[in-house]
Amino acid sequence: MTKTAAMPKPMPAKGRSTDPADYQNLPRPVAAMAKEFPDGHLIARHRHKRAQLLFATEGVMTVTTPDGSWVVPPHRAVWVPPGVEHEIRVSGGLSMRTLYVSEAAAADLPKHCTVLDVSPLLRELILRAVELPVLYDEAGPAGRLMSLILDEICALPVLPLHLPWPEDGR
To answer: Hey, is 107 helix, strand or coil?
Structure first.
């Protein structure tokens, strides 16, 4: 009987920026960033030019917008359309992988924040995406991988992990 070795945790490309601002104006439809956060960390309210898919490989995050809060457990993701003001609160250590999607590439994706059930295939695609060069060859394998990511996002089921803010003043 052979023993299977544990798969090593994929690491982002060396030297890659962890500043979201560096991913907003790239000449590619999808840009991927990996970042780690400690328990209790709060990313203050902000917004991005690009849409985001925030994926938790480990840990839990709560994403809050003016419309409500979304709890994102491991192996799930929250979709945040472009321009939506949001903050992120971390519960436990968080390994977050973010896909920044240009407005043009996000045209057929959800128009509102939602939690998505990430398929095993999409999980692996995201983990590979953070290893690719930021300015990947759009006509090559990396470009096809990013296109497949967009197709997979469109096919993901929505999960009921949303707590809307009350609309009635009472």
So the answer is: coil
- How far is Cα 161 from Cα 142, in angstroms, rounded to an integer? 32
pLDDT tens digits, residue range 53-98?
999 999 999 999 988 888 888 888 999 999 999 999 999 899 999 9
Please state, in angstroms and rounded to a whole number, the distance separating the CA atoms of residues 118 and 55: 8
Contacting residues for 106 by C-beta, under 8 A, at least 6 apart: 50, 51, 81, 82
Whole-number Å distance between alpha carbons of 129 and 34? 10
CA 84, CA 46: separation in Å to the nearest integer? 8
162 pLDDT exceeds 60?
A: no
Contact present, 153 and 109 (Cβ < 8 Å): yes
What are the beta bridge partners of residue 153? none
DSSP string, 42-87: EEEEE--SSEEEEEEEEEEEEEEETTEEEEE-TTEEEEE-TT--EE
At 35 the three-state DSSP class reads: strand
This prediction's pTM: 0.85
Contacts of 20 (CB under 8 A, 6+ apart): 33, 46, 48, 98, 100
The contacts of residue 102 (CB under 8 Å, 6+ apart) are 28, 29, 30, 50, 51
